[in-house]
Amino acid sequence: MTNASNAQTHSRSGGQILSLGELLVDLIPVENGGRIEKTGAVLKVASGSAGIFVCAVSALGAKSGFLGKVGKDALSRMVYDTIRDCGVDMRHVVTSDEGQIGLAFIEYLPDGSRNYEYYRSRSVGSLYRAEELDT
After folding, report:
1. Tens-level pLDDT at each residue, the chain (135 residues)
2. Residue 64 is part of which domain span?
3. Is the distance from CB of 124 to CB of 76 less than 8 angstroms?
4. Paired strand residues for 66
């Protein structure tokens, strides 16, 4: 586990914390009780646990980088830019014509719990292969 003290020590020593994974876009209904099946506006948020982690590490002052794959679609560009703007080194990210970024719809239920529906089948991040890893 990385905490603020460890991240800062690691950063000062010249190391870099890398995160490998799939970036996503969370789509969160902001009207009609937060239900997916109701029409209304949605909030789009750059997401994916690997991206969230590496942004948090960067915010703690550590050098960080992301390994993964994004598409050339508008949502891929939005997520890429958001993660990069957190101060994350994105030079190892592969950009591909194949696929588009995965989506996660999040419902906030009346009891306070959440329901997730993922659309990731053949998403660009799920198509990342070991041979694409830039070492």
Report:
1. 344 444 444 445 567 899 999 999 999 988 767 778 876 888 999 999 999 999 999 999 999 999 999 999 999 999 999 999 999 999 999 999 998 999 999 988 888 888 999 999 989 999 999 999 875
2. 4-126
3. yes
4. 19
Position 102 in a domain: yes
What global pTM score does this model have?
0.83
Distances (CA, A) of 8 to 13, 14, 17, 69, 86: 9, 10, 11, 27, 16
Tokens 């997916």 sit on residue: 36
- We report the CATH number of the domain holding residue 76 as 3.40.1190.20
Number of domains the chain contains? 1
Strand intervals (E) in 33-99: 42-47, 64-71, 93-96
- What is the spatial distance between Cα 38 and Cα 109, in angstroms, rounded to a whole number? 13
Classify the phi-psi angles of 41: left when phi > 0, otherwise alpha if psi is within -120 to 50, otherwise beta. Answer: beta
Q: Indicate the length of the chain as a whole number.
A: 135
